[in-house]
Amino acid sequence: MSDSRRGRTRSETTRRAILEATRDELAANGYDKLSIDRIAAAAGAGKQTVYRWYPSKSALVAECVLDGYGFPLTNSVPDTGVIRRDLRDWLGTFADLLAHPQTAALIRASTAAAAESDDVAVRFYKHVTAAAEDALAERLRAAAPVDDTRAVAAAEALIGAMLYRLLVRQPATPQFLDSLTDTVLSGIQGTGGTVPTS
What we know:
The protein is mostly helical.
């Protein structure tokens, strides 16, 4: 193997080490207290290397989000033929994910970064929530004659309510998940779309 190829391999290894260290730093300390010095030390990289590749904290977090570090958001929505059961099961899986301390900390930190940077906000939506939104909207359209706008709005309501619950540090209890499911389905039925819930 040539030296140039070894150099590229080392660079990619270093980049991934930096992103993994960023994920761990965000989970441990949040966005506001994110430390480039600690990230460089944990990654075994020079501080100047981190600054050269990522001129700001938000740029570093944006790449962390882009590469999907620490954001295993479930996109698959069950299809048993019963829409209420399927939505409720999906929400239960989502709630279990959000209950994991590292995932919760990463999402809170990324939300803070997104508030500061349009780039992070776009990447967070595209690489974390958009696929889940699309899957939910598709399942809703399959269950009822609901137009695309209403299906997307319902999907956003489900995801948004769960993320809000996380940000205000309130547990997504089974009772809350039942109420959220019923409220969204009732809203769709109220628009003229008859949703078979059982």
